[in-house]
């Protein structure tokens, strides 16, 4: 079985989004073909509430999905489907925008540092205009896999025969959160056709046959292969996500992702004229 080597390491940069939220965008600046089917990955949070309290007021999405995963703190959400609620530490939400949804995500003031991640996943052409759907993923219902020195939270996809909390997702991408104790090893086999990514948010890890050492805050893109082999000399936490490339044209403008510029023009025209929401 071919072990994956590191193809590229990204560190991202800080940007202002929403109504004035400071966050680190790790994926989202480059060529979508490189990260296909993933579009964007943000690491948000701060110990200063002024960095996040303005939040992300009501805004539209179409043609893609978002996965928001909280490590610390709370985010209040609402959408045009009528969903309302708060996700807290360890919780997640998977939103399929499909034909169109309008929602808001408003971080709540928290003691200490708020921390979370948002991943955007592209939808294939056949599903761009599907019915929107929202899924709350409560921490206590996220399947866990534990082994010597390793704890894995399986949010979507499948790991060691255990299916993730989010089911019936387009393309069934893998999304797991891994806690690797010091001086232990983590091995995962992933379909060789999938693009594979790892975001290290605590500690350090040693990757691949070349034993490359990677520091906190790094996003690793892997070469083609089937097996990831990871070690750490101190406790590490990281997210792994992987998915099969769509290999379709990407037309992307702000919160809407379609296949052509004409489809984008239609979406924004509908937004202006009040007929954006289809379901």
3D structure, described in words:
This protein is mainly beta and 279 residues long. The protein has one domain (6-273): Jelly Rolls (Sandwich). Helices cover 6% and strands 51% of the residues. The chain has a seven-stranded antiparallel beta sheet with strand order 1-22-19-24-17-14-13, with no helix packed on it. β2 and β3 form a beta hairpin. The longest helix has 13 residues, at 261-273. The protein starts with 5 loop residues before the first strand and ends in a 6-residue tail after the last helix. 39% of the residues are buried. The mean pLDDT is 94.
Quick description:
The protein is mainly β and 279 residues long.
Approximate shape: globular
Quick check: average pLDDT? 94
Taking the alpha carbons of the first and last residues, their distance comes to 46 Å
Number of strands: 26
Radius of gyration: 18 Å
Biggest sheet character: 7 strands, antiparallel
Give the helix/strand class: mainly beta
Q: What count of domains describes the coordinates?
A: 1
Low-confidence stretches: none
Strand-helix topology:
Blueprint lengths: L5 E5 L2 E5 L3 E7 L4 H4 L2 E7 L11 E6 L2 E9 L1 E6 L4 E4 L4 E5 L4 E8 L6 E8 L10 E5 L6 E4 L2 E7 L1 E2 L2 E2 L10 E7 L3 E6 L5 E8 L2 E3 L4 E3 L4 E4 L4 E6 L3 E8 L7 E3 L2 E3 L2 H13 L6
Antiparallel strand pairs: 1-22, 2-3, 3-4, 4-11, 5-10, 6-9, 6-11, 7-8, 7-10, 9-12, 13-14, 14-17, 15-16, 17-24, 18-23, 19-22, 19-24, 20-21, 20-23, 25-26
């Amino acid at each position: 079985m071919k072990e994956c080597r590191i193809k590229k390491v990204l560190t991202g940069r800080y940007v202002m989004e929403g109504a004035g939220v400071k966050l680190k965008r790790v994926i989202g600046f480059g060529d979508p073909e490189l990260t296909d089917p993933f579009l964007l990955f943000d690491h948000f949070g701060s110990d200063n509430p002024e960095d996040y309290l303005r939040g992300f007021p009501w805004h539209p999405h179409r043609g893609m999905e978002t996965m928001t995963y909280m490590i610390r703190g709370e985010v209040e959400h609402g959408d045009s489907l009528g969903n309302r609620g708060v996700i807290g530490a360890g919780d997640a939400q998977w939103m399929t925008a499909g034909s169109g949804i309008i929602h808001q995500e408003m971080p709540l003031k928290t003691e200490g540092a708020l921390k979370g991640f948002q991943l955007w996943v592209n939808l294939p052409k056949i599903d761009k205009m599907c019915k929107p759907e929202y899924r709350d993923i409560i921490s206590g219902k996220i399947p866990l896999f534990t082994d010597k020195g390793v704890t894995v939270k399986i949010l979507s996809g499948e790991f060691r025969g255990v299916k993730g909390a989010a089911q019936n997702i387009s393309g069934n991408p893998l999304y797991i959160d891994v806690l690797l104790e010091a001086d232990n090893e983590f091995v995962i086999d992933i379909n060789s056709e999938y693009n594979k990514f790892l975001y290290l948010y605590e500690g350090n890890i040693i990757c691949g046959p070349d034993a490359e050492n990677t520091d906190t805050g790094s996003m690793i893109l892997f070469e083609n292969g089937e097996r990831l082999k990871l070690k750490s000399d101190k406790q590490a936490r990281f997210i792994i996500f992987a998915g099969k490339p769509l290999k379709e044209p990407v037309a992307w403008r702000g919160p809407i992702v379609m296949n052509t510029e004409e489809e984008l023009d239609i979406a924004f025209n509908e937004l202006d004229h009040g007929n954006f929401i289809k379901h």
